Amino acid sequence: MKEVYDVPYMQRTRDYYSAQGYQEPYRWAHNDQTPFNKLTKSLKDSRVGLVTTAMPDTKQGRERRDIYSNPVTPIPETMYTEELSWHKAVTHTNDISSFLPIQQLNMLKGEGKIKDLASRFHSLPTDYSQKNTMERDAPEILKRLREDEVDVAILVPL
After folding, report:
1. Is residue 1 pLDDT above 60, yes or no?
2. 18 vs 24, 86, 133, 158, CA distance in Å?
3. Using one digit for the tens of pLDDT, what is the confidence trace for 56-102?
4. What single-letter DSSP state applies at residue 25?
5. What is the reported pLDDT for 92?
6. CA angle 107, 39, 31 (to 5 degrees)
7. DSSP 131-153
8. Using CA atoms, how far apart are residues 150 and 102, in angstroms rounded to an integer?
9. Strand partners of residue 155
10. What stretch of H or E contains 50?
11. CA 20 to 30 Å from 129, out of 11, 15, 31, 145?
12. Nearest 5°: phi and psi at 71?
């Protein structure tokens, strides 16, 4: 049996951050209050939005890490994940439903467990800058989710 080991993500992040030339060690986000809201209606009455850290498997998606919005139909056959950090020795990203659960959400809609799935999903690249996340990326994703009239968002980091 192949030996399975945990990836030391925290140390790996510190090392990556340092290798980028940052003088101060990486600091993880800390919030005095949880930055989430309670649902205002049940899931069966809610439109669900989907956000992933995987990029579109297109020339632009492979070359430019940016925020992308793509239709949920048809479900993409692949997403670009090569530059993301995941334990490639013990898992893979061949099963797109494992990190982009469009098919599962459509099934939940068919069963009446959610009202609807937004017509597009959003790709948000991993960024080690809390400032970029808080000041640029999060507000843009929130804007797009509001345009989609989403009641609840599922965040699926890879």
Report:
1. no
2. 8, 19, 19, 22
3. 999 998 898 899 999 999 999 999 888 766 667 777 788 899 889 99
4. P
5. 78
6. 115
7. HHIIIIIHHHHHHHHHHTT-SEE
8. 15
9. 51
10. strand 47-52
11. 145
12. -65, 145
Q: What is the 3-state secondary structure (H, E, C) of 70-115?
A: EECCCCCCCEECCCCCCCCCCCCCCCHHHCCCHHHHHHHHHCCCCC
The model's pTM: 0.82
Q: Are 139 and 27 in contact (CB under 8 A)?
A: no
Of 24 and 117, the one with more pLDDT: 117
Q: What are phi and psi of 111, to 5 degrees?
A: -85, 0
Burial of 133 (0-12, 13-18, 19+ CB in 10 A): middle
- In 3-state terms, what secondary structure has residue 123? strand
Residue 23 pLDDT greater than 70, yes or no: yes
Closest of 8, 22, 7, 3 to residue 128, by C-alpha: 22
102-148 pLDDT, tens per residue?
999 999 999 999 999 999 999 998 776 778 888 999 999 999 999 99
